[in-house]
Amino acid sequence: MKAARLEDGVLHIRELPVPEPGNEEARIRITASGVCHSDLHIVRGDWDGVTSSGSIGHEAIGIVEALGPGAEHFVHVGDRVILGLGGTGGGYWCGACEYCLQGRPRHCKESKGILGTFAEQFCVWARSLVKLPAHLGDQEAPLACGGLTAYGAVKKLLDHHVLPGRPVAVIGAAGGLGHYAVQIATAFGYRVVGVDIGEERLDFVRSLGAAAAVGPEQAVTVATSEFGGCDAALVFATKMAGFDLGLAMLRRGGLFVAVGLPASSEGNFQLNPFEFFFKDPTLIYSAVGNVQDMRELVDLAAAGRVKSHVSRTGSLSELPTIFDELEAGAYLGRAVITDMTT
Ligand SMILES: [Zn+2]
Ligand SMILES: [Zn+2]
Questions:
Q1: Contact between residue 85 and residue 156 where contact means Cβ atoms under 8 Å apart
Q2: Is 51 within 8 Å of 72 (Cβ atoms)?
Q3: Which ligand is nearest to the CA of 94?
Q4: Which of 34, 65, 118, 223 is the 20 to 30 A CA-CA neighbour of 315?
Q5: Residue 89 CA: which ligand is closest?
């Protein structure tokens, strides 16, 4: 089978043996795999301590074609499924520790991620698979990471008592994750103040249902004068300036939800202690979501409330080119590899 492999920081398309599913694993024939910003960071070696060799890709749709022992309890051959859970925790979790029982399997000591969906076939722990209704097409593959990550972040608004109807800033609103967050937060009943750069991207943000769409220069003024400051900021930016902006758009006592992971070279997120004192924000990080979140998101997508915006598709061999385009911000929304065989 064909598969993308990162070898000492260089991306190759290799011919590899077809993997055999292990205990409770299913082998999936991948029909679509989204290109996530995390993949780009891994390929470019942006994150200290993250390996520069191995398989990549962590958001996909495919068909179950073989089962390992015990997997029959969760899926059947022929099922069409979405897989990945954002790559974090989608490979395994113990189900019995305090984090698993709290619905936070990502923090489980035994949790394993997923990497390797840029391949014709891929074996994955069957418990993390979510079945898809037939009318959701393969272009929805990015729901597995981009969509789930946005969904997990919006759900945290409710955990922290930010009520529907309240204004919520989305920083990076036209991007691969932000475009989901605008739709999901709007579906939940929040008034979204979307921030992005350039008229084309702002028009796109408005088309997704945002109450306002502004560039970074006007963002604080608009948030303050039209909304009295935002109750929460969901920060999908991969630059530290976006983190600072999210904090500045908050009203006193607001909720800051960091989602983007800037390159290590961007330095630290800094907070002046007096600003901290006066503004008294709650600062949290939100990473992906769990399998129940994925089921809820699939339901929301099936009901037509959330749609993946895919403006670039290609074959596996085009992956290096697509990474260059992603880095250059050449397209809105997501890219999806829809042909793993060439
Ligand atoms: Zn991802
Ligand atoms: Zn656990």
A1: no
A2: no
A3: 2
A4: 65
A5: 2
Mode of pairing for the β-strands spanning 334-339 and 310-315: parallel
In single-letter form, the type of residue at position 37 comes to H
Report the alpha-carbon distance of residue 292 to residue 297 in Å, rounded.
9
Token pair 């019995």: residue:
96
Measured CA to CA, the distance from residue 95 to residue 80 in angstroms comes to: 24
DSSP 8-state class, residue 330: -
CB 1 within 8 A of CB 27: no
Which ligand has an atom closest to residue 109 CA? 2
pLDDT tens-digit readout, 274-322: 999 999 999 999 988 899 999 999 999 999 999 999 989 999 999 999 9
The Cα–Cα gap between 198 and 181 comes to 19
What tokens does 49 get? 């301590």
* Contact between residue 255 and residue 160 where contact means Cβ atoms under 8 Å apart: yes
DSSP 183: H
The strand order across the sheet containing 212-214 reads 212-214, 191-195, 167-171, 230-235, 250-258, 282-285
Task: Give the pairing of strands 25-35 and 334-339.
Answer: antiparallel
From the CA of 110, how far away is ligand 2's center (Å)?
6
Give me the amino acid identity at 53: S
Record the pTM. 0.91
Which amino acid would we find at residue 209? G
Measure the CA–CA gap between 61 and 82, rounded to whole angstroms: 4
Question: Reduced to 3 DSSP states, what percent helix, strand and coil does the chain have, rounded to the nearest 5?
Answer: 35, 25, 40
Please give the distance, rounded to the nearest whole angstrom, from the Cα atom of residue 192 to the centre of ligand 2: 35
